[in-house]
Amino acid sequence: MTDFLNYIAGEWVPASTGAWFENRNPADASDLVGRFPRSAAADVDRAVASAVRGFGAWKLLPAPARGDVLRRVGDLLTARKEELADIMTREMGKPLTETRGDVQEGIDTAYYAGTMGRQLFGHTVPSELSNKWAMSFRRPIGVCGLVTPFNFPLAIPTWKSFPALLCGNSVVFKPAEDVPHTVAVLVEVLLEAGVHPEAVQLVHGFGEEVGKALVSHPDVPVISFTGSTETGSLVGETCGRMHKRLSLEMGGKNAQIVLDDANLDLALEGVLWGAFGTTGQRCTATSRLILQDGIHDRFLDRLVTAATALRLGDGRKDGTDVGPVINESARDKIETYVQIGRDAGNTLVAGGQRATGGVLDYGTFYQPTIFAGVKQGDRIEQEEIFGPVLSVIKVADADEAFRVNNGVKYGLSSSLYTSNVNLAFRALNELDNGITYVNAPTIGAEAHMPFGGVKQTGNGHREGGWEVYDFYSETKVGYIDYSGRLQRAQIDNY
User: Do residue 131 and residue 30 come from a single domain?
Assistant: First the structure.
């Protein structure tokens, strides 16, 4: 048995509680990855105190030099790509083809951050007064609390930590308790690359014990949270009351629209990947399929055949298409929603039960599931399930498809398959989502582009791309008056 540790104040240490929790492979419950510290508020207090000291030292390193450190992080992640992919698949289940992509996203984010060390632009503008200079520039903020989910164990922590560190902040990681091993390795990489040993902290544990303490800590002015809308609302209440800067990336109920003129082969590949990649456990996963009536029946038939043929199993084995869901609680939730769909009179055309037999008996597997005849407003059409469950809705035309897409409380990702360029541009303008793909699935964001949604998906901030650097830095305005006399701006000088 391997016992892992927190990283606090420059040392690898156990929790102050002396308690531990287990991390097991969701594809094989008998495979114990290790034990991790079940930390408490006292551990958060110590980590934050250290991060305050680390911020004081790390921010003094020029931003281009911090960029050099993050480029080295990219090099180290590249060297450890296969190791990290295996670690992720073992602790969260998705196939190696996907976890390699997870690592690559972290690598891309590191190299992009490295370039941003020379691009933290401010503005120089004319003053309204003579012999006076007016400018703005970017400054770091302080300690950033990073609360990350299970589905992208490396990519999402890098989305948050690399921009935060590049801007000169220190960070405290609170990873999801289902995937603690990956972030432990990421911290090792950050330290090896040259990040100040007190600019990064790692506190393992549960949300109600560690996450809550981190979010409410008075010396943590910045919180970045990825998770459910329900938990995000609670985080938002605390941060609003304490005047913290907050980035929320929460739920989605994403739709792929397929119109009569679409390339159906391409659309089929897209929905299989969007709905059942990562076993449907993405905030951008395709959980609704909106089909125009002219192609509905034949497309649905092809989809059912293809989904039923997907191979479930251990993501570290060749030939696996779909891995397990993350834990038993997640599978229970999926079962509950499948029953809700049945009770509403929706037609179950594929899946709908636990995947069993042979090695599948040892993990938390669930069959790729498709409901047809789903109506707008049905619970399975409205609520986030976070699993391999797809609702199919028939519509008459593009106008109805757009209305159905927009008729949920979330607004993260959307997808339209069509050969009509006019409809493609209408979709970019009219679909009420932070991201819209044309002739591509609802998943596939790129590291150098902003990522996030509208409505109850987020609070307006974006991860990724150039916009996230504004979130992790503050604008400072400077005026230099070299006139040698009192000049009064904002007074009527005309």
Answer: yes
Considering the chain, what percentage of its residues have pLDDT values greater than 90? 98
Report, as residue numbers or ranges, the catalytic residues.
Answer: 249, 283
pTM value is 0.97
**pLDDT at residue number 490:** 82
Does 27 score more than 70 pLDDT? yes
Query: Is residue 132 located within the same domain as residue 274?
Result: no
Q: Which domain holds residue 219?
A: 6-250+458-477
What's the pLDDT at 492? 72
Residue from 480, 456, 465 nearest 231 by CA: 456
- Strand bridging mode 20-25 / 222-226: unpaired
Question: Do both 169 and 261 map to the same domain?
Answer: no
Kindly state the average pLDDT of the residues 381-396. 98
| DSSP one-letter string for 210-237 | IIHHHHT-TT--EEEEES-HHHHHHHHH
Alpha-carbon distance of 173 to 226, in angstroms, equals: 12
pLDDT band of residue 299 (cuts 50, 70, 90) is: very high
Inter-residue contact 380 to 341 (CB < 8 Å) = yes
Helix (H) or strand (E) holding 408: none
CA pair distance 254, 198, nearest whole angstrom? 40
- State how far the alpha carbon of 478 is from the alpha carbons of 31, 168, 469, in Å: 58, 19, 20
Quick check: is 29 in a domain?
yes
Residue with tokens 């790129």: 446
Find all residues with CB under 8 Å of 230, minimum gap 6, and list them. Answer: none
Using DSSP's 3-state secondary structure scheme, residue 164 falls into helix
pLDDT of residue 228: 96
Looking up residue 403, the CATH number of its domain turns out to be 3.40.309.10
Task: Return the CATH number at 127.
Answer: 3.40.605.10
pLDDT, one tens digit per residue, over 161-213 is 999 999 999 999 999 999 999 999 999 999 999 999 999 999 999 999 999 99
**Residue 490: inside a domain, yes or no?**
no
Do both 104 and 41 map to the same domain?
yes
Same domain, 67 and 191: yes
In a domain? residue 188 = yes
* Burial class for 234, CB neighbours closer than 10 Å (0-12, 13-18, 19+): middle
- Token pair 């959980």 is found at 287
Mean pLDDT over 341-357 rounds to 98
H helical segments located in 93-205: 96-116, 155-166, 180-193
Residue 75: pLDDT band by 50, 70, 90 thresholds? very high
Q: Are residues 122 and 63 in the same domain?
A: yes
Nearest in space to 363 (alpha carbons), one of 99, 179, 91? 91
Same domain, 79 and 225: yes
Whether residue 169 sits in one domain with residue 134: yes
CB burial of residue 240 (10 Å; 0-12, 13-18, 19+): exposed
> Which helix (H) or strand (E) is 275 found in, with range?
helix 264-276
| Plot region of 377 (φ>0 → left; ψ -120 to 50 → alpha; else → beta) | left
Domain count for the chain: 2
